[in-house]
Specification:
With 354 residues, the chain is α/β, with parallel strands linked by helices. It contains 15 helices and twelve strands.
Length: 354
């Protein structure tokens, strides 16, 4: 099988959720023996369709524009068995680069009218490839893709091989140790294998791919904290991700939430620890966390027998947590105190670090 994957994300590498999800799907395709080529649309010169219909009359099947679309991408599109259209969700549909590409596929159609079911359509000039539509969004509800689903199904009809719509996509950047994220990524690889084998993804695998991994109640406070940190630091979200800026909690509840999010269960092993925090200053109060058998629990209040007790001004500990200050240096300067098993403190970086 000849597969062409078109990625319209303007980002790349470990800050592109589209690229991460697409990469897993393509891994499965390659494992199943497909010949896969990836084209990054952001690197190509693709002019807008101007609706002149030259490709229908004066030069049938050939666009007026002499750009990367005409010379390179359209011939590859036309000759592929399967095309994956990978796009971030922009204003509830494909982004502008992907829409431009789609409009420039007009030469594959003939100008004549025919009836297909209840709809008037233009017949294909060439055999059209089957299509997979893949998109990602940060929102936790799959309904955010409803407009894109309608568009994809109306446009590609019986050539639509599969649809992959991945919610809570930010989790794929920051929760690499999450069991839920790992299960989705394994399902994406399996979906790629199935597409090569049968030109479809089984309902069972699609259910695993689309499985919710977070809720509004879990996502929104953390997202709001990250956006506020970007505003305070004067950086874009992309710059914050590249610099690995950690959101700064402004309350004990947000502190515990961020700790739960950052916890790396796979690195915990058989670790057992109970840590008590006694905060003064900006957000005075008591809280704790317990690590046991790979699980992580938090709470507000006091533990009876913690392994470690940390007494600190809230602002000081947040400076340490967000890497604005050196924890060891502040400890030596007695800006905070730690009582109990100090080796527990030394494990924080392994269990919660980037």
């Amino acid at each position: 099988m000849k597969v062409l994957a078109l990625n319209s994300s303007s980002r790349t590498g470990d800050v592109s959720k589209t690229e991460i999800i697409l990469g897993d799907l393509l891994q499965g395709m390659r494992e199943a023996g497909a010949e896969v080529e990836v084209v990054e649309l952001r690197r190509k010169k693709i002019r807008y369709c101007i609706g002149c219909f030259t490709c229908w009359t004066k030069t049938p099947g050939v666009c007026l524009h002499k750009d990367d679309m005409t010379r390179e991408i359209f011939p590859k599109y036309r000759d592929s068995d399967l095309v994956v259209l990978a796009t971030p969700l922009f204003h509830y549909t494909v982004n502008a680069i992907m829409k431009t590409f789609i409009e420039r596929t007009l030469p594959i159609a003939l100008p004549f009218f025919e009836k297909q079911g209840e709809a008037t359509r233009h017949p294909y000039r060439h055999k059209a490839p089957h299509v997979v539509v893949l998109s990602v969004a940060g929102f936790p509800e799959e309904s955010v893709f409803d407009a894109l689903k309608f568009y994809a199904r109306f446009l590609f009809r019986d050539h639509l091989a599969a649809e992959i719509y991945r919610t809570s996509s930010e989790m794929f950047l920051h929760s690499t140790g999450s069991r839920k994220v790992s299960e989705v990524r394994e399902a994406l690889i399996q979906g790629g294998r199935e597409l090569v084998g049968s030109m479809k993804i089984s309902p069972e695998t699609l259910k695993r791919i689309h499985k919710p991994i977070t809720t509004f109640e879990e996502m929104a406070p953390l997202g709001n904290l990250m956006w506020q940190t970007c505003i305070d630091e004067g950086v874009t979200l992309g710059e914050a991700q590249q610099k690995k800026i950690i959101p700064r909690p402004d309350s004990i509840e947000n502190f515990l939430m961020l700790m739960r999010f950052a916890f790396k269960a796979r690195k915990a092993g058989d670790t057992k620890m109970a840590v008590q925090f006694n905060f003064s200053g900006q957000a005075a109060g008591e809280c704790y966390f317990i690590v046991e058998n790979g699980t992580f629990r938090t709470g507000v209040g006091k533990l009876d027998h913690p392994d470690l007790i940390i007494d600190s001004p809230f602002e000081v500990w947040m400076d340490i947590m967000t890497q604005k200050a050196d924890g060891q240096k502040l400890f030596m300067e007695q800006k905070y105190s730690a009582q109990g098993d100090i080796t527990v403190l030394m494990r924080f970086k392994d269990l919660f670090g980037n």
